[in-house]
Specification:
14% strand, Rossmann fold, alpha/beta, 6 helices
Length: 145
């Protein structure tokens, strides 16, 4: 993720949060570096509120309310990260993207949020996004070091 230039505005897929919060054995360092850049304001970030839904499910399944609250607090108050509500317009456009691609509904909503926020980069690790032609943003994939 170091190739994302300073001053960029990015959108984060849920997997970026998972790699960071769960200290993924392969991708944690890249995710940590990315979130440090966001925290410092070197880059600005947005994410759909859908990421909260996806991130909180494991804690609620485990009946770990404390963990759910901690993740919610961390994500919703992270410096230089704006959570974007899923609006009717986002839902409408996500359905079109879903119909025209192989993306699942959550992926379509996250990508549509990125597009409507006019970000420079969409950070994910799902190569399906790279197969969508004509996107006006770059897809940032976590490297496999």
């Amino acid at each position: 993720m170091n190739r994302i230039p300073a001053g960029s505005r990015i959108a984060l897929d849920t997997v970026a949060f998972i790699y960071f919060l769960e200290r993924h054995p392969t991708h944690y360092k890249s995710a940590k570096d990315l979130f440090e850049r966001i925290e410092k304001g070197t880059i600005e970030a947005v994410a759909s509120t859908l990421v909260l839904t996806e991130l909180l499910v494991p804690a609620f399944r485990a009946e770990d309310l404390s963990s759910a609250q901690e993740v919610f607090r961390l994500v919703s108050h992270f410096p230089h990260l704006e959570l974007i509500e899923v609006t009717a317009s986002i839902a409408y456009n996500a359905s079109r993207i879903r119909a025209e691609s192989s993306l699942r509904t959550p992926d379509s909503l996250n990508l549509t949020t990125a597009l409507m926020e006019q970000v420079d980069w969409f950070v994910t690790n799902d190569k399906a996004f790279t197969r969508i032609p004509g996107l006006p943003l770059k897809i940032g994939l976590f490297s496999h070091r």
